[in-house]
Amino acid sequence: MKPVRIAIFASGTGSNAIALIKKAQSLNEGQIEICFVLSDKAEAPVLEKARAAGVRTYLVEKTSDRQSHEKSVLALLREYRVDWIFLAGYMRLLSASFIQQFRLWHEQREQIVNIHPSLLPAYPGVDSIARAFKEGVSQSGVTLHLVDEGMDTGRILRQEVLRRTDDISLTEWTRQFHQVEHRLYSQFLENIALGKENTAYFKENP
Ligand code: GRF
């Protein structure tokens, strides 16, 4: 099987990006190739971390013009013939036309995924862990989902529940979320590597 080519998009800390990179590097058959990590923020710590882990990075900065931003990103995806996009704390929505172009390159399959720290459709958007915590929920969790043009609205692939005990701090609960995120996300990457998740390889339109 030829390697599956992955791009990771991230805007922040990058703990999920690093978990994915480590998983890819641990797969000894080289089934996964992380082509690059892309960020829209120059100051994002993920850029330095990815480079330190030996992964190429690109910065395509936020501009007022969404169309030209996405055009630059699509050019990179095409250049590297990327098969799957993993969003990992990427703070931008992808437009319907961006998603459609990516599907066109992959036999109409949906090959963009995201990880989110809530049991979607509850708590979409930012600060999901803190919002759930402050409302005193008895449980929340992590969702792995396909990406559409909405805010955390694509089809759900996996969910894992995280209970909140009365004595747990927000810091500790947040740590637990990240642990689950890293595990779920790298397991999904491994499943792609093992062919347990089908991949339509990048193909230019006829
Ligand atoms: C994670 O909580 C992820 O679920 C959400 O954004 C956060 C990114 O964290 N989409 P990190 O940059 O991967 O550490």
Structural summary, described in words:
The protein has 206 residues and is an alpha/beta fold. It has a domain at 4-114 and 143-151 and 178-193: Formyl transferase, N-terminal domain (Rossmann fold, 3-Layer(aba) Sandwich). 36% of the residues lie in helices and 20% in strands. The chain has 6 helices and 7 strands. The chain has helices at 15-26, 45-52, 66-79, 96-104, 128-134, 170-193, and strands spanning 4-9, 32-39, 57-59, 84-87, 112-116, 139-146, 156-163. It has a 7-stranded mixed beta sheet. Helix 4 links the parallel strand 4 (84-87) and strand 5 (112-116). The longest helix has 24 residues, at 170-193. The mean pLDDT is 96. The chain binds 5-O-phosphono-beta-D-ribofuranosylamine. Residues 10, 12-17, 88-89, 115-117, 181 line the site of 5-O-phosphono-beta-D-ribofuranosylamine (GRF).
